[in-house]
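Our working data are protein records whose layout never changes between entries. Getting from the letters to the tokens is the skill we practise here. To make this concrete, we reproduce a full record directly below:
***
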Amino acid sequence: MMEEASKKLVIVTEDGSEEEVELLFAFEFNDTKKEYAVYTRNEKDDAGNITIYVSSVIREGDKVQLGSVESDEDWARIKDVLRELSKKD
């Protein structure tokens, strides 16, 4: 079985330091054109689950930044996407 190489991103944290993370997937809602990135630092919680993070994708010309998820409605839709993806396997 061939394994796809993971995609690494370098993010700049709020304190200005750089951190390499693994991009799990990215998606866009067709109706709002809002883009999101789902990534991990490969940290595990107390139950042994890998912690994932979701950020909005902000494009300004050639520059791409990660931002926060702005509304509860957006979070609800993102959770629906994550639930659907967790069912597939």
